[in-house]
Amino acid sequence: MGLLIDGKWVKQGYDTLKTGGRFIRTESQFRKFVTKDGSSGFRGDSGRYHLYVSLACPWASRTLIVRNLKGLQNDISVSVVNPISSENGWTFEEYEGSTPDTLSNSRFLYEVYLKANPEYTGRVTVPVLWDKETNAIVSNESSEIILMMNSGFSCGNDLNFNPEEKKAEIDEINAFVYDKINNGVYKAGHATTQQAYEEAFTDLFDALEVIDQRLENQRYLVGNTLTLADVRLFVTLVRFDVAYVGIFKCNLKRIEDFKNLPEYLRDLYQTPGFGDTVNFDHIKNGYYRGFGNINPTGIVPLGPIVDYTRPHNRDRAYGI
Asked: What Gene Ontology cellular-component terms does the record carry (predicted)?
């Protein structure tokens, strides 16, 4: 973790002393949009955009999944950073499964930010959607990048994972999942007081129970239709047992210990476009070696053994 300040990288975590030991995520600063007609200044053309991601990061992995679901693999190029955040933040140093910065041959991701804005001050995060035409960062907010990919490109397929008639319900469940689960694991893991940790821990597992019950009689979060809400939940669930149970102390139950979540997770993992974005080596090394403030020894656990290719039966259970 760190910040760009006056063009220099500063290794710095979140200052929880000001927040009662609670983890407060900062807002993304690049928030422009790609649209089909280009009215936003960024038209959704094939080959125009480049995506910077980490396979360890759940937020970045959302964008890879939607890129797959929308058939945009040949339209949006990708660079994958080294999963282990260095003293200089995300790096393009060689690591199996990572790639160089094929656009500008940067060594560190912060250099990409400075190319977009030499006066940028703030956190350097993934994902980053880069516009090759104007040499600018369009967005570093994953929740908005996946919306752009869903409906802002003239290429790809016509599938819609955020249908108008379901948007209100999708938005409602997204808000709940983000606060209590997606960000909830970070609130627990980065808490620096017992009270802050216990609050986040309790909210997290209460929310998981709510979602588990919700999935009792429907295949997906919003009925029997796969939506962006499922993408957003999946990236946290697939990291839960291999990372969050251990390093973030989210150990009341594993996902495998719930009633409906294990089969739901396997169902998504086996859906084309999901499982091939998951790299457990990147995930485990990214968390256990990347958060030195939480795991100063950098030791990466050998377990657990996970198999998300086992049958899930949810398609047959709901007649789909």
From this structure: cytoplasm
Q: Kindly list the catalytic residues.
A: 57, 186
Helices (H), the chain: 58-69, 109-116, 142-151, 167-177, 184-189, 194-214, 228-239, 245-247, 261-269, 280-288, 314-317
Identify the architecture of domain 165-317 in CATH. Up-down Bundle (1.20)
Lowest mean pLDDT among 26-40, 130-144, 219-233: 26-40
Identical fold, 2-151 and 165-317: no
pTM over 0.85: yes
Separation in Å, CA 280 to CA 38, 49, 242, 248 = 38, 27, 8, 16
| CA distance linking residue 236 with residue 243, whole number of Å | 10
Give the integer Cα–Cα distance in Å for 171 and 128: 23
* Packed helices 58-69 and 228-239: angle between N→C axes, nearest 10 degrees: 130
pLDDT at 281: 98
The Cα diameter of the chain in Å comes to 58
Residue 127: cis peptide before it, omega within 30 degrees of 0? yes
Structure tokens at 201: 């821990």
Binding residues: 90, 123-126, 141-142
Q: If phi over 0 gives left and psi between -120 and 50 gives alpha, with beta otherwise, what is residue 249?
A: left
The one-letter code for the residue type at 142 is S
- Residues 138/129, Cβ–Cβ less than 8 Å: yes
Class of 2-151 in CATH:
alpha beta
Rounded distance, CA 216 to CA 260, Å?
6
Rounded Cα distance, 61 and 5, in Å: 27
Q: Three-state SS for 149?
A: helix
